Amino acid sequence: MGIYINKEDKTYTLTTNNSMYQIKVDKYGILEHTYYGEKMDYMDMSYSVKCEGASFSPTFAGAERWEDSYNHKAQELSCAGIGDFRLTAVGVRNTDGSFGCEPRFVSYEIKEGKYSLNGLPAFYGDNAQTLIVTLKDKVYDIYFHLYYGVFEEYDLITRSLIIENKTEGKINLEKAMTLTLDLPASKTYDMLYFHGRHTRERMMERATIKHSQLTVESMRGASSHMENPFVVVCDKNANEEYGNTWGIGLVYSGNFKISAEKNLQEKTRIVAGINPENFNYEVLPNDSFVCPEVAMIYSNSGFAQMSNNFHKAIRNNLCRGQYKNAQRPVLINNWEGTYFNFNADKLVAMAKDAKELGVELFVMDDGWFGKRDDDHSGLGDWTPNEKKLQGTLSSLAKRINDLDMKFGIWFEPECISEDSDLYRAHPDYAFKMPSRVPQTSRNQYVLDFSRSEVVDNIYNQLVNVLDNANISYVKWDFNRHITDLYSVALPAERQGEVYHRYILGLYSLLERITTKYPNILFESCSGGGGRFDMGMLHYMPQVWTSDNSDAIDRLKIQYGTSFAYPVSTMGAHVSTCPNHQNARITPLKTRGNVAYFGTYGLELDVTKMTSEEKEEIKRQIKEFKKYYELIQRGDYYRLISPFTPEESLHCVWETVKPDGTEALVCAVRYETDACTAPEYARVKGLIKDKWYRINGSEEKYLGSALMNTGFKLDYIFDIYPSKLYHITLA
Ligand code: DGJ
After folding, report:
1. CA distances from 372 to 213, 334, 646 (A)
2. Residue 335 CA: which ligand 1 atom is closest?
């Protein structure tokens, strides 16, 4: 059904396979949000958002009832400054200095296909429809264009907002968040969010949305390891397979904020968008501001359905380029194998051994350029260090290619070391405040990408490298967050634009580079998973999930990441033991099994492995390839959480063919106990009345039995054991 407009009711109803979203122009011309939830037959749902009385809520001018207050209305676009004291999305400082806007309906338009956003990443595709609703302030010529994208098959509804200044003076946006969402009914909801830190990203936490604000945000200039720009709002009793669930993610990589609160009418409001702190954007006459996209997926049956829809939408309609759905090469990265201590001969020796195991791509990480033997210097000078490379970069690429392997390379284009030629020539290229000594983080500064000449300089340097050697893969790293924010290119009163302009500069560089090199596989990284967001995924189809590749810590990291992001986007490597991040020793098999549910690669010095270990890696690469399609494109289910050791000693997950004919379950025992009770895993997505075998077993199991009672997990007498269970039709 897509977009349905009922002219009599003045409702706009967006319908997907399982969800419905409705807005309505009320008698005052205010755009109300009347419904977002389970799909149903058409009905004007405005009865459910009628303004009820409450004192200390001002009545807006021209209202027929005293209860009609901006403070009660379920507004589709909430503005600050005009009597809505709840969470609001937009704050406009008008030319005359007054603060506030009262948007009223002007017009609408429907378009086939999905809208795109100038300069910002967004979902795309012909398999969608677009609705644009235009509002205008009651007084000033300030227009608000609300954009909606409807992807029926994924239950995905996207939203963006363009604020256009048609007045004769400049206006200032003091807040330009994209989303206001008033959830239906006076209910109490929970929020799942994904916090963390370096080497411990996307730890799932669950909290109840109460009357004080519940906020996840970043003010680090990047989406960050600490919070992810994605939340799940759900019924209090919702779980993987039950309950109203709304997944809400931002297609943005910079400072963000997602806040929720229960307000005075006991309704839950959510706002999401660019973080308003240290944000102030000047919009000149006839100019406009584009707010980043918000992606929302509703499920009436819990988290798994929501996650699977995000996975498909991200894979097919957010990621781009030839690799978005293609099989990625198995890679080896030298970082943990050598750190900065390598030369070409060492790399070639590693590549040679790796090739014999079935590895297809060799990635040279940090340290190949400028003066860079540790992390104190060199960033900004993207000139190969020919002494270390024992020749040109091209000659090293050739040595790797001669082994019948692809060659890849690491960059950190957004940062600069004080000890670099670029800094000596252009100290103003780095963010620094006029009279303060700038702070370092990992001994480096961040480049002012709000300036096009800085972006151009780095673009030219990257092109120079990429044009002069046969490079098939790029790892794009970013190893600090932004402090000392100040751009010499903008006047004092416009410094509040810099954070966002930085991200626009980054996106413009990514767009140019990825367009120029369509055959290169790009992997995003930010000290591991510090910028794992839908914005970066529009340019690069995979992200280094975490610098922590310990198989047991990864259970929680990959579990949390999977709520929004598909397996195909999660960079996952087998590394050495004791693990470099936490000193844990785990079986090589378990490290492999966990990395299968990501991109699978190696991050160790393969020349130091025993022949037994090498045989195991050889076996893993074969096994990974055998299951590649099933793992990467199957439906993904979190069966047993790694956060509940009191319920199970295992973390278990599954990928199943959408037609239910084949599944692969992975179980990792992360806790140990003596005399354990038998544990069962209940599988999902099989065909109820078909018979299955597990790992070719003699016994046959009915699909219903495997889904209702489950199968018994093998007890393996080892530390951190794991096992794959391949479930096939009998
Ligand atoms: C941080 C990344 O996450 C690592 O994998 C590695 O590339 C280092 N940076 C290199 O400096």
Report:
1. 46, 15, 48
2. 6
Angle between helices 344-357 and 393-401 (to 10 degrees): 20
Length of the chain: 730
The DSSP annotation for 590-639 comes to HHHHHHHTTT-EEES-GGGS-HHHHHHHHHHHHHHHHTHHHHHHSEEEEE
Cβ–Cβ < 8 Å for 254, 500? yes
Residue 53 pLDDT: 81
Using alpha carbons, select from 549, 550, 552, 548 the residue that is nearest to residue 669: 552
Per DSSP bridges, beta strands 331-333 and 601-603 are: parallel
Pick the CATH number of 331-630 from 3.90.220.20, 3.40.50.1820, 3.40.50.1460, 3.20.20.70: 3.20.20.70
- The Å distance, Cα 543 to ligand 1 centre, comes to 12
State residue 108's pLDDT score.
Answer: 98
What residues have CB less than 8 Å from 698, skipping those under 6 apart?
none
Q: Which tokens hold the place of 109?
A: 């338009």
**What's the pLDDT at 150?**
98
- Give distance in angstroms: CA of 717 to centre of ligand 1: 35
Atom of ligand 1 at shortest range from CA of 547 = 3
- What does the pLDDT look like over 345-376, one tens digit per residue? 999 999 999 999 999 999 999 999 999 999 99
Query: CB of 335 closer than 6 A to ligand 1?
Result: yes
- Model confidence pLDDT, tens digit, residues 425-456: 999 999 999 999 999 999 999 999 999 999 99
Residue 706's pLDDT is what?
98
Element (H, E) at 139: none
Cβ atoms of 173 and 280 within 8 Å: the answer is yes
Q: How far is it, in rounded angstroms, from Cα 559 to Cα 566?
A: 11
Test site for ligand 1: of 335, 379, 523, 579, most ligand atoms within 8 A of the Cβ: 335
Instruction: Say if CB 362 and CB 405 are below 8 A apart.
Output: yes
Element (H, E) at 220: none
Tens digit of each residue's pLDDT (9 = 90 or more) over 21-42: 999 999 999 999 999 999 999 9
What is the residue-wise DSSP string for 31-70? EEEEEEEE--S---GGGGG-----TT-PPPTT-SSTT--T
Long-range contacts of 347-351 (CB under 8 A, 24+ apart): 347/396, 347/400, 348/396, 348/399, 348/400, 348/403, 349/607, 350/605, 350/606, 350/607, 351/399, 351/400, 351/403, 351/405
Q: How much is the pTM?
A: 0.98
Beta strands in 477-629 (DSSP E): 521-524, 542-544, 570-571, 573-575, 601-603
Q: Could you tell me the residue ranges of all domains in the chain?
A: 3-317, 331-630, 636-729
Q: State the Cα–Cα distance between residues 620 and 628, nearest whole angstrom.
A: 12
In whole angstroms, give the CA distance from residue 571 to residue 548: 11
Domain 636-729 adopts which CATH fold?
Immunoglobulin-like (2.60.40)
How far is the centre of ligand 1, averaged over its atoms, from the C-alpha of 336 (Å)? 9
Cβ of 410 closer than 6 Å to ligand 1, yes or no, is: yes
Measured from the Cβ of residue 185, the count of other Cβ atoms closer than 10 Å reads 12
Q: From ligand 1's centre to the CA of 615, what distance in Å?
A: 28
Q: Which amino acid is at 215?
A: T
- Residue 675 CA to ligand 1 center (angstroms) comes to 42
Distance of CA 222 to the CA centre of its chain: 12
Q: Which residues of the chain have pLDDT under 70?
A: 1
Residues facing residue 656 across a β-bridge: 635, 663
Query: Is the CB of residue 547 below 6 angstroms from any atom belonging to ligand 1?
Result: yes
3-317: CATH number: 2.70.98.60
- DSSP annotation of 565 reads S
Ligand 1 atom index nearest CA of 410: 7
Best probe residue, ligand 1, of 526, 544, 602 (max atoms within 8 Å of C-beta): 544
Q: Say if CB 108 and CB 12 are below 8 A apart.
A: yes
The preferred substitution site among 477, 481, 599 for testing ligand 1, maximizing ligand atoms within 8 Å of CB, is: 477
- Nearest-CA residue for atom 1 of ligand 1: 527
